[in-house]
Design goal:
homodimer; alpha/beta; Rossmann fold; six-stranded parallel sheet; 3 domains; 41% helix; magnesium (chains A, B); globular; 15% strand; 22 helices
C-alpha cells in the first residue's frame, strides 16, 4: 500500500544516486526527522548494499565517520536529525576540512514553514557549518515535480564528487522533510537512474619548467621534507627519485614512509635539530623540497626559518600550506606528478652518507632500555618493534604524536593515522574506531585526557564488537603543558595539569573491554603481540614530569654521540 | 620583573571590564592559546573576585556555563583554546541562542600571521558560530596603542551587555594572542578603568491601545496560555490579572507557575486535549492570550489551530514565536508590561469554575497508585509530592519533559529548568550541574540515552563535589520513538530503540557517585526526601513500551471521569 510515494521516491533517488557514485558506508545518529533515511538505510544494510553504523552521540558519530573515510579515502555518509544534533558534528567537520578527508554530511530539517517561527527543535541550519565545509546545498523537499527530482539526483551525486575531489573535504547537505515521515518500505532502486561522472585531471609540467627546476636541483645538497600524505603513489615516485638522486627524505610519521628500509629515509630529525649540535652545519641543505601537509615537528619550522636553502613547496591545491612562509618557489603540482616528471639529479658523493651515519647513531641509542622499565618513550619503542606491516596505528594529538615523531623508528612500514588537521584531542577514540571497521590490526595510542574526552566513543566498539587495542598513557592530566613556560606557575595543576583521577579499569568494565595494566616493556610487548579479539585497553601509568626529563636525556645523549662520531 | 607588560595590560583590561559589568563566574576549558586568561582567572578566583570552573570537555563546559547562566540570568564567561575546542561549544551555543540565555564566549586564536597558512591547530574562527550568536567581535591583539586598548575595554563591556539585554543570548569574542603567552602575575586591576552603562527600556502601551484591548477582552471566555518564562515579575502581574478577571492560566511546566496554589492555574490541559472529550466544547475560549516562549505540549498547537478564538501573542522581541501561525494580534510588549497596564476585566460567572472542576478531576486520578509499583509517570508524581520550594528541578528533553508536562501537579512551586530552545538531549547532565553550582537543592530527571550522551559532564560533579540527585529513567534506549509511527517497523531497535545496555551502577562508581536502585514509589520518595550530600544517582528501571500504554490509560481514565462529571 503506497502511502507516501513522493517521500519514498525522493529518498530512493538520494541513496541510489550515492550508491552510483560509490558510497559504501553510512553512519547515522538516531532521531525523528531523519526517519525516512534511517529506515531506508537499515533496509539497504540488510540487503548488504551498504554498511551502516548507528551511533547515538553525534560528536562521536561524526568522528567515527571521519575515521572510516580516512581509511577508505572515499566519502562516508553521515546523517542526523534536526537541531543541536548537527552542532555536535562540528568538531569532526573542522578536522575533515583541514585534513582533507571526504565526508558527506546530511542534516535533516523541519520544512520551511516550521523554521524561524519558534517551532520546537528548529534552528537555522542554512550554512550551519560556515566556511568549515567545502560546499553547502539545501536539498528540495520531496516533490513530484520531475525537474526537482532531477536536481536532487544531480546535487547528491555532485556533492559526493566535491567531497572526494582534491582537496577532499566535508560537504553539507540540508534535507528538509515534512510529516508524515514513514516511507513505503522496502524502497526500490531505479536501475535507470542517471549517473554523473567526473574525471580528475593531472598536472603536466611544461618542458621549460622541468628543465629549469632540474637545473636548479642539480649538484646541490638537497633534502626532501615529506609531510603528512595519504597518496601511496606519491611516495613511490618520491622514493624512487630520492634513491636515484641520493637525497635524504625527512619522513614525518604521517608521511607513510617510516619503516621503509632505505638509507634515504631519515627519522631522527626532530631530536637532531634539538641537539643544536655543530654537526648540523655539515647537514645544512642548499635545496629543500617540501611535500605533503604541515609536518608534526615544530623544530622543522625553526629549521626552515634559519635555513639559507632554496625551498620548493609542492602545493597542488594552492592551499598556502607553508606557515613558516619560507617557500622560495611554490609549485601547483602533486608530489606524484612532480617526481614522475622531473628527472632525477646526479647524486653527490658523501651527502646522503652524512645523514645516514647520523640516522644510524640515533637508531643505536633510541632503543629499549635494559632495565625493562616502562615510560612514554619506551611505549613508542615497543610499538616500533612489534608493529606488523598490517598494523593501523592511530595516534592521539598532544603528546603521543610528538613522542611518535621523535622516537618512532619502526621495523615495518605500517599505516599511521592522526587527526592532524586541527590537532584536537576531541573525538580521537571514535576516529580510531572508525578506522578499525575497515582493517584487521588496530592500535590506538592515547593519553588519559583525550581518552576521557571521547570515552562515549567506546560504545561503538562494544556495540559492533570492534577489534582494537588501546594503549592509554595515564599520566593523570595534560602532559603537554609540562613542556610549556607555565609549568612552574602556582595554579598549574588547577588550570593546566587538570588531573581527572580516572579509573581506567572501571572504564574498561563499563564498555566490556579486556583490561591490562602494563608495568614493564616486556609485558607491553607481550600484549601488543597477541591478536586483539575485541576491545582491549592496556593502561600504562607514567608521570608527566618524567617525560620532560626523559626526552631531554635522549637529546643530550644523541648530542654527545654525534660529537664522538665527528671526532672519530 | 615585567616581561610581558602589553599582554598583561590587555587581559587586565578585559577581565576588569567584565567585572565592572557584573561578571561573577567563568568556565574555562584548558589549552595552550588561552594561557594568559587562564592564569589571570585562576588568580582572580583565588582572590575570590570571581568563581572559576575548569572543565576539560569543551562540549560539557559550554553546557555547564549555560546551566549557570540559566540560574543566575547573567552572562557567564566561557573560554577555550584555538581549533576544534571551540567547535565543541556549538551545541550549547545553539541552545543558548534559542532559549535566550546570556553567554559570553571567548575563543582564543593564533595571531593573523598564523591563520590560513596551514599552521598547526589553526582554523578560521571568524564568525565561527555563524548566525547562532547574537554578535561576533574580533578583539585586537594586545597592543600599547591607547585607542586599541580603549576599544578592547569598550567591546568586552558592550558584549556583556548585548549578551544580557533582552532577548538575552550568546555573544562570541575571538581573541588572538601571540607568543609568549605568559602574563606578568599577579595582574592588577585598574580602579579608574572606564565603565560603560546601559539601561533597558520599558514598553508603554498607548491609552488608545489599552482601551481597545480591554474592550476586546471584556465579557469573553478568555484563557491565558503561559509558556516557558524566566521572569518572576511577569508571573506576579499575570496571576494578579487572571485572579481579578477570572481567567484560567494554562501553565506550561517551564512557566514557573505550576505548584502555585490558585484555582486559576490549570495543569491538566495536555491530557484533557488528548481525551477528545465532548466536554472540550464547553471549555473552548473566545480569547487566548499567549505569553512566554514555545510551550512544551504539541497538543496545544493542535488546539490553537482548531480554535476559533481571537489570539493575542505577547511577543516582546518580535521573535515570531508562534509556529502555529494562529496569532490574531501580535503585541510587542512583555507580559509584565501588558498585565500591569491593561486593567483586569469583569469575571464571567461559571467560566473559571468549569476549568477548576476539570482540573480537580484530573488531580483526583493523577495520583500515586496503591500498588507502589514504579513507572515513568509515578516518578513524576513522586517528585510532585516531595519537591520543596527550594528545589531546582532540571528536566531532560525527549520523554521526561513530556511526562512532566502531562503529569506534574506539584505540591510546591519549585523552579523547573529544561534546555527547551533546541530541545537537544545533548549536554543535559552538564547544564543541570551548572544550575546546581548556584543552588542548594538539585534534582535532574533524565533518561538513559541523554544520561549517556553527556556522561562526561559528571566529571564536574566529582571534581567540585557538587550536590545533586540524578534520577536516571533506564528504559535502555530511546523511549520517545515508541510513540512514533515507526514503532512497529522491522529495524526499529537497530535505528531507533538503540539499547546501550549501560550499567548505571558502574557509571556511578566511575564518578564516585552514591548509587541507589529505586524499585518502589516508597523507596524513590525516601531517596528524594533525604538531602543530597554529593552526587547521587538513583536508577529507575522501566520498559519503553509500558509508558505508551500507561499514558493512554491515564487519558482514558480522565475521559471517563469527565463524562461522569458532566452527567452528574
Amino acid at each position: 500500500m503506497k502511502q507516501n510515494e513522493t517521500l519514498t521516491t525522493h529518498i530512493s533517488l538520494i541513496l541510489n544516486g550515492l550508491l552510483l557514485q560509490g558510497l559504501t558506508t553510512a553512519v547515522i545518529a538516531p532521531g525523528s526527522r531523519s526517519t525516512p533515511l534511517a529506515l531506508a538505510l537499515a533496509q539497504l544494510a540488510h540487503e548488504q548494499r551498504i554498511e551502516l553504523f548507528v551511533d547515538v552521540d553525534e560528536r562521536s558519530a561524526a568522528f567515527f565517520a571521519l575515521g572510516i573515510a580516512k581509511k577508505i579515502n572515499k566519502p562516508v555518509l553521515l546523517i542526523c536529525t534536526s537541531g543541536t544534533a548537527a552542532a555536535n558534528f562540528y568538531p569532526a567537520i573542522c578536522e575533515a576540512k583541514i585534513s582533507q578527508v571526504p565526508l558527506l554530511i546530511m542534516t535533516t530539517d523541519r520544512p520551511p514553514e516550521l523554521t524561524k517561527v519558534a517551532a520546537p527543535q528548529a534552528l537555522d541550519q542554512d550554512h550551519f557549518f560556515g566556511n568549515q565545509v567545502k560546499s553547502f546545498f539545501e536539498l528540495p523537499l520531496p516533490e513530484t515535480n520531475h525537474d526537482s527530482q532531477n536536481y536532487t539526483n544531480y546535487i547528491v551525486q555532485k556533492s559526493f564528487q566535491i567531497a572526494q575531489n582534491q582537496p577532499a573535504g566535508p560537504v553539507h547537505l540540508n534535507q528538509p522533510f515534512r510529516k508524515p515521515l514513514m516511507p513505503d518500505l522496502p524502497i526500490k532502486l531505479d536501475h535507470n537512474q542517471q549517473k554523473y561522472t567526473s574525471f580528475s585531471s593531472q598536472t603536466t609540467l611544461s618542458s621549460n619548467l622541468i628543465k629549469k627546476v632540474h637545473t636548479n636541483l642539480s649538484n646541490k645538497r638537497g633534502i626532501i621534507l615529506a609531510g603528512p600524505n595519504q597518496n601511496a603513489l606519491s611516495n613511490i615516485a618520491m622514493l624512487e627519485w630520492a634513491k636515484k638522486s641520493g637525497w635524504p627524505i625527512l619522513a614525518d610519521p604521517l608521511s607513510q614512509l617510516r619503516g621503509i628500509s632505505s638509507p634515504n629515509i631519515i627519522t631522527c630529525y626532530d631530536s637532531l635539530l634539538k641537539t643544536n649540535s655543530d654537526k648540523l652545519i655539515a647537514l645544512m641543505p642548499e635545496i629543500i623540497i617540501r611535500t605533503g601537509q604541515t609536518f608534526v615537528a615544530a623544530s622543522l619550522a625553526s629549521f626552515l626559518k634559519k635555513s639559507q636553502a632554496t625551498i620548493y613547496s609542492l602545493d597542488e591545491e594552492n592551499a598556502l600550506n607553508d606557515y613558516t612562509k619560507t617557500t622560495t618557489f611554490s609549485l601547483e603540482t602533486s608530489a606524484e606528478d612532480f617526481f614522475n616528471q622531473i628527472p632525477p639529479v646526479n647524486p653527490l658523493t658523501e651527502w646522503l652518507k652524512e645523514w645516514s651515519v647520523i640516522e644510524k647513531v640515533y637508531t643505536s641509542i633510541n632503543k629499549i632500555n635494559s632495565t625493562d622499565t616502562l615510560n612514554e618513550l619506551e611505549v613508542v619503542r615497543a610499538i616500533a618493534s612489534t608493529g606488523s606491516k598490517k598494523l593501523n596505528l592511530f595516534v592521539s594529538n598532544s603528546m603521543p604524536i610528538r613522542d611518535i615523531d621523535s622516537v618512532l623508528q619502526p621495523l615495518n612500514a605500517f599505516r599511521i593515522f592522526c587527526n592532524r588537521g586541527a590537532n584536537g584531542i576531541d573525538g580521537i577514540v571514535s576516529t580510531a574506531l572508525g578506522v578499525s571497521t575497515k582493517s584487521a590490526e588496530n592500535l590506538l595510542l592515547i593519553g588519559d585526557l583525550a581518552f576521557f574526552h571521547d570515552m562515549n566513543g567506546l560504545m561503538m566498539a562494544k556495540k559492533y564488537r570492534l577489534k582494537i587495542k588501546i594503549i592509554v598513557i595515564n599520566n593523570n592530566g595534560g602532559g603537554i603543558f609540562s613542556f610549556l613556560p607555565q609549568a612552574g606557575s602556582s595554579n598549574f595543576e588547577e588550570v593546566f595539569g587538570t588531573p581527572l583521577d580516572i579509573d581506567i579499569e572501571q572504564v574498561a568494565q563499563l564498555y566490556h573491554a579486556h583490561y591490562s595494566l602494563a608495568e614493564t616493556v616486556t609485558s607491553l610487548k607481550k600484549y601488543l603481540c597477541t591478536p586483539a579479539h575485541s576491545l582491549e585497553i592496556i593502561e600504562v601509568r607514567t608521570d608527566r614530569k618524567d617525560n620532560v626529563a626523559l626526552r631531554q636525556e635522549l637529546i643530550n645523549q644523541f648530542a654527545s654521540h654525534i660529537q664522538t662520531t665527528k671526532e672519530s
